[in-house]
Amino acid sequence: MILTVTLNTALDITYRVRALRPHASHRVSEVTERPGGKGLNVARVLAALGHEVTVTGFTGGATGRVVREQLSALPGVVDALVPVTGATRRTIAVVDEATGDTTQLNEPGPTVTPAEWSAFQEAYEDLLASASAVALCGSLPPGVPVGAYAGLVRAAKAAGVPVLLDTSGEALRRGVAARPDLIKPNADELAELTGSHEPLRATQDARRRGARAVVASLGTEGLLAATPEGRWRATPPTRLHGNPTGAGDSAVAGLLSGLVERLPWPDRLARAAALSAASVLAPVAGEFDRGAYEELLGRVAVTGEVTAA
Amino acid sequence: MILTVTLNTALDITYRVRALRPHASHRVSEVTERPGGKGLNVARVLAALGHEVTVTGFTGGATGRVVREQLSALPGVVDALVPVTGATRRTIAVVDEATGDTTQLNEPGPTVTPAEWSAFQEAYEDLLASASAVALCGSLPPGVPVGAYAGLVRAAKAAGVPVLLDTSGEALRRGVAARPDLIKPNADELAELTGSHEPLRATQDARRRGARAVVASLGTEGLLAATPEGRWRATPPTRLHGNPTGAGDSAVAGLLSGLVERLPWPDRLARAAALSAASVLAPVAGEFDRGAYEELLGRVAVTGEVTAA
Question: Has residue A242 got a pLDDT over 90?
């Protein structure tokens, strides 16, 4: 199975309001709730691609119960979340019907105790034993040490499990130093990591910092990959309009599934770029438009060069 | 015991953010959760005044479980909420730390089925048997007929239980026609009911429409009462600055407690006005500053005239 880790799981709530005005009172016309956090989105896409996926991370409180109830209804996804005393955070996306724009309110997440963090690390090492690959995704909840991902990367490597890291800021900087097999930063995360706003230079620099391979997601410009086997750029044929939330998570799912299926890099990148573009057409993160994905897959342009042996 | 009815209970969530900007992403720095809905706030104030209170209405889902857990920790409040399949609504107050202003997002509430509405009516009639007074508070959730309060008013009168109605719009209009003992509209609700923005005229008009007594809450100007026994105005000594949410619910608690203690109208009004003002000093609805309440109680000016016998 593929293992995805979401230390800061969420209950993603979407509200529709006629028009959001600060300091006014609003009647919410529509409420939707779903399990959230990058690793859960990645798991949903992997399961839709036919992979067996196990999700771990933390969950707690009334919000955590809702997340688990909803996860239990997803075929192909096994819940191995570790309980904590604090409550799983909510994220609230307020969609303004007048403009279509979204205002986001993100709770910080539960404070994880040292004992809970230790319990997670044990559970994680047990799960690695049957994992073909692992993705470490998203922000750290309060209480989890900032070097957490570095430790989880090292444990995966010690277990011989390929590890992808998708986070940001100091957690990414420290995690990269532990030499993950792959990172998937977006343009901002890559610039923050390397200090360079020039993607070609920055992906190379991120490799020097410890990442074996770097696939940067550059929005509508597609993906830019720097790997030991070569460098490539994967560009979808058209700019799609829709909801970009979760496009990066779909790219992670594409890269991971390509890795465990041992696809050549150009095929992995084409799949990741097509999934990412097709998820822009889906209303929520963790889903993609299957028709668009299949149609786009053959039309993603992958250009690049193989490294001389 | 005193019975309070909250058909559309809520989980009131307060978020603090640095500054709310539409279409931006916000990190919530502080999250608080508490049971909400007007009747639950009234119950908390009544319990703090030493009365035995039973709360009923609807509750459901994960949010309803949190409401019930928190209610069970309140001394003096008995939970007689009726379960529904839908989920208790959330209300989200986003406090902008830069300005102190609040932006409110209110979910609509669960859709109540006809069978659930029937179950509630039976439970309500059973509870009336041991009630000394009943307050019907707040908005109606989807599925409950707009004439609901009229039926609940008639049932209370048939049981010989004094009934206070605190709602708005068409639910208030229909409820008033069923001749409740007391209504407590604010200025806007009173104007919507009567078409008059002149409070003296409007309170008299609301009596003609069916309310035996009318106590209008006029914000910092205090309370205006039109009753069969006379007319009064109760004015707090100073304008207090703070959070006006829940001030009307505290006034309802003051009026109800004065009713069951058979206080003369001027004393009931002084209590209601002092509680209302003292709740402005408390950070959340359903609470009041006890020191301020006791100090204000003797300083509320009650002026008016008794109706000639």
Answer: no
Closest CA to A47 of A263, A216, A249: A249
Set of chain A residues whose Cβ sits within 8 Å of the Cβ of B21: 22, 103
- Per the structure, the complete domain to which residue A147 belongs is given by 2-8+36-85+111-306
42-101 in chain A: CB under 8 A from chain B = 62-63, 65-66, 92, 94, 96, 99, 101
Q: For residue B10, what are the β-bridge partners?
A: B36, B89
What would the pLDDT profile of B74-126 be if each residue is shown by its tens digit? 999 999 999 999 999 999 999 999 888 889 999 999 999 999 999 999 999 99
Chain B partners of A23 at a C-beta cutoff of 8 Å? 96, 99, 101-103
CATH number at residue B187: 3.40.1190.20
Interface mutation vs chain A, best among B14, B33, B92, most A CBs within 10 Å: B92
Domain count of chain A?
1
Residue B213 belongs to a domain: yes
B132 occurs within a structural domain? yes
A244 Cβ under 8 Å from any chain B Cβ = no
Q: Please report residues of B whose CB lies closer than 8 A to that of A102.
A: 23
Contact list, B106 vs chain A (CB under 8 Å): 25-28
pLDDT of residue B309: 60
- How far is Cα B97 from Cα A31, in angstroms, rounded to an integer? 26
Q: Which amino acid is at B290?
A: R
**Chain A nearest C-alpha distance from B248 (Å):** 17
Model confidence pLDDT, tens digit, residues A120-133:
999 999 999 999 99
Q: Answer whether residue B144 is part of any domain.
A: yes
- Using pLDDT thresholds of 50, 70 and 90, give the confidence band for residue A220: confident
In a domain, A31, yes or no: no
Half-sphere exposure of B243 (CA within 13 A, CB side): 20
Is B249 annotated as catalytic? yes
* Cα(B107)–Cα(B64) distance, integer angstroms: 13
Q: Does A106 touch chain B (CB under 8 A)?
A: yes
Taking an 8 Å cut-off on Cβ atoms, the answer to whether B27 and A106 are in contact is: yes
**Is the separation of the CB atoms in B55 and B43 below 8 Å?**
yes
Residue A154 phi/psi, 5-degree rounding, is -60, -40
Interface size between A and B, measured as CB pairs under 8 A: 79
Write the residue in A28, A31, A105 that is nearest to B26 by C-beta.
A105
Contact B275, B44 (CB under 8 A): no
So what's the pLDDT on residue B281? 82
Instruction: Please answer yes or no on whether A106 and B29 come within 8 Å at the CB atom.
Output: no
CA dist B77 and B111 (Å) reads: 26
Residues contacting residue B104 through CB under 8 Å, at least 6 positions apart: A24, A25, A26, B91, B92, B93, B94
Which of B66-80, B220-234, B237-251, B271-285 has the lowest average pLDDT? B237-251
Is a pLDDT exceeding 90 seen at residue A57?
A: yes
> How many other C-beta atoms lie within 10 A of the C-beta of residue B197?
11
